[in-house]
């Protein structure tokens, strides 16, 4: 659905044109201060003139909401919606008004849920889940729930350089509890085909110390884990997928609530999409602590040849 909308950008130097990029990444150039027909969905407004003072949409000023805009490659970018009432109420719902300043993106995790075409190799409901994108969202890092927390700690990043040591430990010393190469079955109809837990530790609450897991225990302690449920490497084979689900049963969801799942993809991650509902794709190039019990998710491996590997650690903080 489209809507006639007039966007007016005020700047020190007059603005003739601006770019609107839709959630698919398609760009079009529009004339400033002119009635134009715009898709009734979130759009990234891009202005090459970095000195933007104010923007009005159908005559309504953005005012301090202009602080949701940011500079990238010397361009000013701001997510807008042609329904200004929907846009402002959404921003008010997600951002404390006092945080609408230059520190906004330090205090908030910013995600953009975009529609993604994963091809026809996957069940239609997985295709549809990825094909829908709800747009931008701001997550206050001090509030919960939050879909994921990026781990900046260089020690944890270095930990992944030694992942072979942990792989060997899990292959030779871990208590597999009959779980090796298990296929997860979520219900009678759907299976996580292509997914296997190559290695598995004890799937119960487990005391550990700095020396546990061939010395990886100290990294898990540094992350804040007090007890561990699981330490495993998950392999997602070519064209494999993990069906729509949230993690954990009723008990685990309560005891293990929040961002208590360390997720580090470390091999063949290029063609792997991990999407959370209302969040979009998770970053695969950094260790993250995800709230997999709260946010519905699905993972697909679009590669026809490569198997994705990731380290997963769950426990209590
Ligand atoms: Fe999961």
Top keywords for this entry?
317 residues; alpha+beta; Jelly Rolls; 2 domains; 6-stranded antiparallel beta sheet; 5-stranded antiparallel beta sheet; 16% helix; binds fe (ii) ion
Describe this structure in words.
By secondary structure, the chain is of the alpha+beta class. It folds into 2 domains: 101 residues, no CATH class; 169 residues, Jelly Rolls (Sandwich). It contains 7 helices and 21 strands. The strands form 5 sheets. A 6-stranded antiparallel sheet has the order 12-19-16-21-14-13, with helices on one face. A 5-stranded antiparallel sheet has the order 3-2-5-9-8, with no helix packed on it. It starts with a strand and ends with a strand. About 3% of the residues have low confidence. It binds fe (ii) ion (FE2). The site of fe (ii) ion has 4 residues, from loops. Fe (ii) ion binds next to loops.
Short description:
This protein is of the alpha+beta class. It has helices spanning 84-94, 104-107, 124-131, 154-159, 163-172, 217-223, 250-255, and strands at residues 2-11, 17-22, 27-31, 34-39, 43-47, 52-57, 60-61, 70-72, 75-80, 108-113, 135-140, 148-150, 195-197, 227-236, 241-245, 261-267, 272-276, 280-281, 288-290, 297-301, 308-316. It has 7 helices and 21 strands.
């Amino acid at each position: 659905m489209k809507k006639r909308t007039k966007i007016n950008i005020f700047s020190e130097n007059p603005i003739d044109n601006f770019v609107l990029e839709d959630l698919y990444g398609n760009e079009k150039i529009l004339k400033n201060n002119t009635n134009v027909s715009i898709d009734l969905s979130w759009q990234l407004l891009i202005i090459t003139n970095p000195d933007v003072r104010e923007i009005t949409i159908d005559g309504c000023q953005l005012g301090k909401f202009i602080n949701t805009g940011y500079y990238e490659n010397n361009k000013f970018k701001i997510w807008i919606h042609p329904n200004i009432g929907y846009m402002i109420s959404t921003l008010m719902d997600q951002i404390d008004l006092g945080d609408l300043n230059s520190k906004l993106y330090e205090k908030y995790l910013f995600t953009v849920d975009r529609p993604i075409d994963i091809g026809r190799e996957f069940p239609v409901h997985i295709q549809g889940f990825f094909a829908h994108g709800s747009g931008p969202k701001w997550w206050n890092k001090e509030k919960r729930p939050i879909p994921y927390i990026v781990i900046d700690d260089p020690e944890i990043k270095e930990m992944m350089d030694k992942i072979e040591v942990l792989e060997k430990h899990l292959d030779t010393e871990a208590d597999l509890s009959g779980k090796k190469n298990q296929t997860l079955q979520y219900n009678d109809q759907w299976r996580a085909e292509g997914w296997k837990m190559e290695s598995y530790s004890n799937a119960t609450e487990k005391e550990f110390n700095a020396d546990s897991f061939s010395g990886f225990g100290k990294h898990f302690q540094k992350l804040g884990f007090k007890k561990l449920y699981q330490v495993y490497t998950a392999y997602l084979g070519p064209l494999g997928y993990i069906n729509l689900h949230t993690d954990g049963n009723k008990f685990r969801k309560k005891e293990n609530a929040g961002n208590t799942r360390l997720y580090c993809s470390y091999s063949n991650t290029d063609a792997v999409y991990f999407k959370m509902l209302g969040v979009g794709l998770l970053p695969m190039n950094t260790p993250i602590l995800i709230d997999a019990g709260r946010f519905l998710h699905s993972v697909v491996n679009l590669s026809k040849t490569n198997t994705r590997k990731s380290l997963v650690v769950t426990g209590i903080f």
